[in-house]
Amino acid sequence: MQVYIVMGVSGVGKTTIGELLSEKINVPFYDADDFHPPENRKKMKEGIPLQDSDREEWLETLSNKISEWEKEDGAVLACSALKEKYRKHLQSIPKEEITWIFLHSEYETILDRMSSREDHYFKPELLKSQFETLEIPNYGFHVNVDASKEEVLDEIIWKLNKKEDAHMGLVGLGVMGKSLALNFASKGIDITVFNRHVEELEVDIAKKFAEENKLVYEFPWFDNLEKFVKSLERPRNIILMVNAGPAVDMVIESLLPFLDKDDLIIDGGNSHYKETVRREGLLKEKGIFFMGAGISGGEEGALKGPSIMPGGPKEAYDRAGKILERIAAKDRNGNPCCTHVGPDGAGHFVKMLHNGIEYGEMQLIAETYHFLRFGTNAAPQEIADLFEEWNKDMKSFLLEISVEILRKKENDGFIIDQILDAAKQKGTGGWSTNAALELGVPLDTITAAVLARNISGKKQDRVSAMKAYNRENKRTADLKEISDDLFKAYKAGSIINHAIGFDLLLEASKSYDWNLNLSEIARIWTNGCIIRSSFMEDLIDILKDKPSENVLMHSEIISLIKNSESALTGIVGQALKAGYPMPVLSSAANYLLSFTSGQSSANMIQAQRDFFGAHTYERTDKPRGEFFHTQWLDN
């Protein structure tokens, strides 16, 4: 019978995970610490490191026990087994009868765990010596424990039952590509990596990446594209982590001579959805599957679990979806933050709109900070404390990192005060605005956020204008007096920004016949991605309840916005009057007022259009669809 040895330094969770595993696979559990002789336990309790001579009797006992367990019902053994010679000593049965499960994490993470443990004879002070002693095995399953115990167990079970088709080739070892490759490997997915080799520009990238990680993972690496492709199991799954634009087409063109029918290419970059539609069509003619998969979460998300938005043929997702789901973040119920979004360009459209909402949320926080920093003279630390309090309700990742940003110091000053106020962008926000214009959907807050970045880039012009108009930052409000209304305004602005974004998704779904599940999109945005928040959790049910209705028409949202509208318009007016721009917050207020106006100003627009261009208009006293023209000037 099989013996499973769960190994690693003290504090990594060997006993906890070992017990869960034994229960799951229904074999007995044993803790190696229970087999130490009394003198060893006494030394460890007193903080005295064990020597190899102290371990001889203990290892021999365990070796004999392993031999017994293998002949009976099998076992799960939690044992540090830090050195290779210890592991060899334990190898009293054939190698294939032992499954090694190496649990690992960073020193600081384990130290925090050790410091909080009670009634355990192992002293945290000994942890450093354990890390120094540890010889990482180049075999067995390697499992990072920076997750819940349920997630760690799930990963182990998946690796034990791994299917042969769980393989992926990855092209492009930039920051995201490297993190994603490590994520694949950590989840037990066979991953082969490729990066081009260009003298004096990109030299031995793939080789160096494999060497840097060889103690934990074995990465087959290539800088020859033909050899890379031919090394992959068929049908091949290849994910591209290269810059959006011409680079994607260049890589696809280079891959094609070596691909076979039913191979799959996944574009994991931020490509424009129309380009994805085009590429899928071209590759379909050649019998090659193509998927555009938006990936959100940045470097850390790619490493630990991003939100993934794949779009393309359902047949392709049925094959590769389980692999993508393995590396994705998990929602509150433990389900992967990854789903088949829809056909052709749907995945990249959804990722584009995710980034559009992200633009709005970032600008909303930035302009709120700016008003507090200069309009109330609040110090960054004070604003951080206020944002932290707000985030008990919002649970926003962007608000969370803003707290950390505002508290970060360099020498005696805050780093935020040393950062140039000229924002950069990569285009996805602007793409969202263009898509909204094409589909005839208002996108006030997101467009305002994009344009705010544009004007921020005109730093020299702004400084000159400030002098010409005699502008100066001055205190016009008290933080304590406005904080409650400011929070109401901020929260309302955030809700309106989300409502605007999902309204564009709804229209795109209808226009492109994508049949998007907005509730499911909200669900995969609850973890791993940049715009995760408590409101996104709420949107799962809101959008499930009334999927074809604007979010602002949901009864709970109506009540909340009604209660916040006065604060929203009041704060906008106060800030503008004091000379502080509020592009997104004011756009949110204007959108709300326009959206809830039964009578708008558009009748004047229609009259003007008819006056100078005879464009006609509809009448309130006639059925919709009938058009009229007036001779506005008497002859």
From TrEMBL:
EC number from the UniProt entry: 1.1.1.44
InterPro entries: 6-PGluconate_DH-like_C_sf, 6PGD_dom2, 6PGDH_C, 6PGDH_Gnd/GntZ, 6PGDH_NADP-bd, NAD(P)-bd_dom_sf, P-loop_NTPase, Pgluconate_DH
CDD domains: GntK (cd02021)
Matches recorded under SMART domains: 6PGD
Ranges of residues in domain 6-phosphogluconate dehydrogenase C-terminal: 347-633
Entry's transmembrane regions: none
Catalytic activity entry: D-gluconate + ATP = 6-phospho-D-gluconate + ADP + H(+); 6-phospho-D-gluconate + NADP(+) = D-ribulose 5-phosphate + CO2 + NADPH
Domain of life: Bacteria
Keyword terms of this UniProt record: ATP-binding, Gluconate utilization, Kinase, NADP, Nucleotide-binding, Oxidoreductase, Pentose shunt, Transferase
Kinase recorded as keyword: yes
Pfam entry (one): 6PGD
Single GO MF annotation: phosphogluconate dehydrogenase (decarboxylating) activity
Pathway(s) of this molecule: Carbohydrate acid metabolism; Carbohydrate degradation; pentose phosphate pathway; D-ribulose 5-phosphate from D-glucose 6-phosphate (oxidative stage): step 3/3
Known function: Catalyzes the oxidative decarboxylation of 6-phosphogluconate to ribulose 5-phosphate and CO(2), with concomitant reduction of NADP to NADPH.
Family, similarity comment: Belongs to the gluconokinase GntK/GntV family.
Protein name per UniProt: 6-phosphogluconate dehydrogenase, decarboxylating
Organism of origin: Autumnicola patrickiae
